[in-house]
Design brief:
The complex is a heterodimer of chains A (about 450) and B (about 270). Chain A is about 30% helix and about 20% strand. With about 450 residues, chain A is of the alpha/beta class. The radius of gyration of chain A is 22 Å and the shape is globular. Chain B has about 270 residues and is of the alpha/beta class. In chain B, helix 1 packs across helix 2. Chain B starts with a helix and ends with a helix. The chains are: A alpha/beta (about 450), B alpha/beta (about 270).
Chain lengths: ~450, ~270
């Protein structure tokens, strides 16, 4: 089979961390995002989308890039427990058990997944990718193209492939992420840092976009998520002191997307696929809800004084939570676990009952949905899945902290993630369901590249 | 030749080879057991008179026992000591509580060493790294080139065939040479025992605790142990299941990851 290099397909994918469908819609109505609105008129449609469960960036982006659910890719959160010692570890790209779409397209994938099985034979050309700042891709590893890892990348030297990229990024003083800790001290300085970080990111993206060869260009913007965590209450409230600044960020974003989009159209109008998506939505926080404290008060969790974090789990513990609300039954597979297989199902119903009774301000319900693992996960890694996962009502941010004295509390965060309010922008009339899930999107990207024309 | 003598000969061969190739060479000495073993081997290689300087990177946060041990050995073994400190950052108050631990390590260790290399125009450094220390070390070579950013390109290193060590160096690069790469933790202790090598007292148990790996005070914690002699340490290491560096907070990346996640409200 022969390929003319002229006809190689191209894709530009923009990831906007934590941008909600509802906010985009509101800003469209207000006419704050004229460029994005114009792009939509070019034959694209904006869809609301469900994030992964749980709706944290590491899981959601991994679900997007692999096109499979956590039961198959094995990433359930930013943290996991080592069963035999109860110590925490932080899963990274090395723990991901399914290949991302760029490896299948690049003919370099090493792991078999539902997505790779479906498309491996249909991709005949090794496509070259530039993957920039996608969360949970650290440490960087060889791909057909260029990889710059995103959050939680620690050491920039280990966050780049190939190595030669490092000297360029170092020369522009590239930063992987703002120091969110600084928000404690000076909010004004902090928000300015978000803008600075965005500028540097744009600079690096333009450099790779213009100067390096690629067939798939996928870049994520992290600053939206950071802005939302600390300033989401300013998003629609015109009296908020940071409202204008918040809006300014979106105006910059709107302009940047336009420039990138136009550049892409100019170069590859005939054979290009253009996609924008977020990994979860956002809403304002009313209260943080500390589920481990709740489990303690209800007699499910018993912590001792010695040890760090989950090492404190004692023999009497029946269940505990990892962030944001992944509940694990403390069964006999843990050294101090006492719950037998026979007791599991009654304990699970008891937990569900109690959680459903949890009431917030003015008797509002806190928990929106509770899933048992087999309802939402399928695949070889279901064994390590949490036994229950809860999704809250908007405004109640579920947390896994272990050192809280009350079930409800407040923190310096203004925004919280939502599962139901992510978005995607894709070409219209492609038969996408009204409300897709994030793991459905890469199938469409693969279809685009596997179709012979 | 017995096992330890074989290890020793191999190390001495590499040390002499390195000195023959690079006149601008120095040895990095952390005062810990591995680099003290390397120091001993360097002395043996040159019959007691080491012809190059010994660098100690001083973060100012080392244990008092380590400073004392260092100064005693310098006198006893007549060493040319270079103390490397990032004075500028120390003046600014850099420490593990200021900024992140990763930043602290970067400034007070890595950058302090960069300053020394620049000042003395060094082309090669001898280090007491062992292959069994950490997973990433499995790919290390005896002669390992670094660029000006200290980056180790482990996928693009010259092949080492038998004892044909690649030791050519580009401008602006330096070589890291690892003469005890083939020693294991247990080999080091057996060798210390055989040679009756002096060693910092922190390695021996006091009140049921001892240090298995030493560095800066704020980032090291002792392990539970009753091993008060080298024989007892050897017996302990032979039977232990935990890793050597488990007492070091400096799984730097984990600490930094935790800090980043907490800043965003996780954990």
């Amino acid at each position: 089979m022969k390929y003319s290099l002229k006809n190689i397909k191209k894709a530009l994918i923009i990831g906007l961390d934590g941008v909600p469908y509802s906010l985009l819609n509101y800003y469209f109505k207000k006419d704050y995002l004229p460029n994005l609105k114009k792009i939509l008129k070019d034959g694209f449609s904006l869809h609301p989308m469900n994030a992964s469960i749980p709706d944290v960036s590491s899981v959601s982006w991994t679900s997007f890039i692999t096109g499979v659910n956590p039961g198959e890719h094995g990433i359930y959160g930013f943290t996991e427990l080592l069963k035999d010692t109860y110590s925490l570890y932080f899963p990274n790209a090395e723990n991901r058990a399914a290949s991302p779409f760029w490896e299948i397209l690049g003919k370099t994938h090493q792991k078999v997944s539902t997505l790779s099985q479906k498309y491996d034979k249909k991709i005949n050309f090794p496509y070259r990718s530039i993957i920039f700042n996608v969360p949970q891709t650290y440490p960087a590893y060889p791909i057909n193209g260029i990889l710059v890892s995103g959050f939680v990348a620690i050491d920039l030297k280990k966050a780049v492939y190939p190595d030669s990229i490092y000297s360029y990024l170092n020369s522009i003083n590239y930063i992987i992420d703002i120091e969110a800790d600084n928000a404690k001290e000076d909010m004004n300085k902090f928000i300015n840092n978000i803008f600075k970080c965005f500028e540097i990111r744009k600079k690096a993206i333009s450099y790779f976009f213009e100067n390096k060869p690629w067939d798939i260009f996928f870049a994520c913007i992290t600053e939206t998520d950071r802005l939302h965590h600390f300033f989401f209450d300013a998003s629609m409230n015109e009296d908020h002191p940071y409202h204008q600044k918040f809006l300014n960020f979106y105006i910059l974003l709107d302009n940047w997307i336009k420039l990138l989009y136009e550049d892409f159209q100019k170069k590859f109008s005939e054979k290009g696929l253009f996609v924008i998506l977020s990994d979860h939505g956002f809403c304002s926080v009313k209260k943080e809800v500390y589920i481990n404290r709740f489990l303690e008060e209800e007699g499910f969790l018993k912590l001792r004084k010695e040890g760090e974090f989950y090492e404190r789990i004692d023999y009497e513990t029946k269940a505990f939570t990892l962030d944001p609300c992944r509940i694990y039954i403390h069964n006999k597979s843990y050294p101090r676990g006492q719950i037998s297989k026979e007791e599991m199902s009654s304990l699970i119903s008891e937990l569900k009952n109690n959680l459903n009774k949890l009431k917030g301000e003015n008797g509002e319900e806190v928990i929106d949905k509770i899933f048992e693992k087999q309802e939402i996960y399928q695949g070889p890694y279901i064994d390590m899945a949490p036994d229950l996962v809860c999704l809250p009502k908007d405004g109640y941010d579920l947390k896994g902290s272990l050192d809280k004295k009350c079930v409800f509390g407040t923190n310096r965060f203004a925004g919280m993630h939502t599962w139901h309010d992510a978005f995607c922008i894709l070409p219209e009339n492609i038969g996408l369901p009204e409300k897709p899930s994030i793991e459905n999107i890469s199938d469409f990207i693969m279809q685009f590249f596997s179709k012979l024309e | 030749m017995d096992y330890l003598t074989k290890l020793e000969s191999k190390s001495i061969y590499i040390i002499r080879e390195a000195y023959y190739r690079f006149k601008r060479i120095a040895m990095l000495w952390s005062v810990g057991k591995d680099s003290t073993t390397l120091l001993w081997l360097c002395r043996k290689a040159f019959f007691g008179n080491i012809p190059f300087p010994i660098i100690h990177i001083d973060t100012s946060y080392k244990f008092p026992e380590m400073y004392q041990f260092r100064d005693e050995r310098v006198k006893q073994w007549n060493l040319k000591l270079i103390i490397g400190r990032n004075e500028e950052k120390l003046r600014e108050g850099m420490g593990p509580d200021q900024g992140s631990k990763l930043e602290c390590c970067n400034e007070l260790k890595t950058n302090a060493l960069k300053l020394v290399i620049k000042k003395y125009k060094l082309k090669a450094i001898l280090l007491g790294i062992r292959r069994d220390e950490h997973g990433i070390r499995a790919k290390e070579r005896y002669f390992s080139p670094r660029d000006s950013q200290f980056k180790w390109d482990y996928e693009n290193q010259p092949a080492e065939l038998w004892d044909q060590y690649q030791s050519m160096v580009e401008e602006d690069e330096h070589f890291r040479i690892h003469p005890i790469l083939h020693f294991t933790e247990l080999d080091v202790w057996n060798y210390i025992k055989r040679e009756k090598l002096p060693i910092v007292s922190l390695y021996f148990s006091k009140k049921g605790k001892r240090f298995r790996s030493i560095g800066c005070v704020p980032c090291c914690s002792p392990i539970d142990s009753n091993a008060q002699t080298i024989d007892q340490i050897i017996e302990e290491i032979r039977t232990t299941k935990t890793s050597e560096r488990s007492g070091r907070a400096q799984d730097k990346e984990n600490i930094y990851t935790m800090q980043k996640l907490r800043a965003l409200g996780y954990m």
